Amino acid sequence: xxxxxxxxxxxxxxxxxxxxxxxxxxxxxxxxxxxxxxxxxxxxxxxxxxxxxxxxxxxxxxxxxxxxxxxxxxxxxxxxxxxxxxxxxxxxxxxxxxxxxxxxxxxxxxxxxxxxxxxxxxxxxxxxxxxxxxxxxxxxxxxxxxxxxxxxxxxxxxxxxxxxxxxxxxxxxxxxxxx
Length: 179
What we know:
Elements: H1 2-7, H2 17-29, H3 33-46, H4 51-63, H5 67-79, H6 87-96, H7 100-110, H8 118-130, H9 139-155, H10 160-178
Helix pairs in contact: 2-3, 2-4, 3-4, 4-5, 5-6, 6-7, 7-8, 8-9, 9-10
């Protein structure tokens, strides 16, 4: 529905950068990654330092497995005013690119902010535990939040991001069964 509304905006006219970012994000959620990158690129052409566009591009690159490029865009988004909670995705991008020192730094820094985002807290704790930089997430945290990550893995099942999430979920599910 959102895509249909946003696509009706004439592309040859100068349109809202926010509309371009929303369309880019919508395309990402629909698995139309090339279209997502094209719209995020167009938004960045209009407003190169716009943290929402930078973050949107970084998130799409994270989903398609371009982890180093994703971390560059997300880092720039943070420097341009993106909310601190975006460090979660930066830490995850570093983790997936096997830069564990930076991943651990960002994920540790963000833990206190994730108390209001328990699904992200779950994955952050899981990743820190996997890097031997934190405690294993509690069974209650896993039980209450694994469904979010199952939905994410399903939504992005055709991407490297979805496949990696599936592996994390398999480990978390094993922990639940072993309790």
